[in-house]
Write a structure and sequence with these properties.
This protein has 5 helices and no strands. By secondary structure, the chain is mostly helical. It has a domain at 54-113. The longest helix is centred in the middle third of the chain and has 36 residues, at 55-90.
Length: 118
């Protein structure tokens, strides 16, 4: 009994040590904007440029969202083939192609890495 209580205490302290935040009370650090040589010459161009995405977002995009986008391209292609007879009779093939083929392709292959708000 004493050994079980001791093991439970050690396990709960280990779990609590893992789950506690490393920097309590501080917010996330501000993102740093991407600056080019043109923005140094033109201050208005610096305000227009987008902020650099954090590294975690880039990794999540490359490791999770891009492979899911490739799967979505395949599913969209199969779905467009299935809906082809119905789209041809209703003359909405361009709408089907845009929704099922073009949007997943653009999201997967033409979107900049780390920009998930598309």
């Amino acid at each position: 009994m004493k050994r079980t209580v001791c093991l439970l205490m050690i396990a709960s302290l280990m779990i609590a040590g893992i789950t506690l935040p490393a920097r309590a009370g501080e917010g996330p650090p501000p993102p740093f904007p991407i600056q080019s040589q043109d923005s140094a010459k033109n201050p208005q161009a610096a305000a227009v440029e987008k902020e650099a995405p954090p590294g975690e977002l880039i990794l999540a995009d490359v490791l999770i969202l891009r492979p899911l986008g490739i799967v979505a391209c395949g599913v969209g292609l199969v779905g467009s083939i299935i809906t082809l007879p119905f789209a041809a009779t209703s003359q909405s093939g361009d709408r089907v192609g845009k929704a099922l083929i073009e949007k997943p392709f653009n999201y997967t292959f033409q979107r900049p890495v780390g920009e998930v708000d598309y």
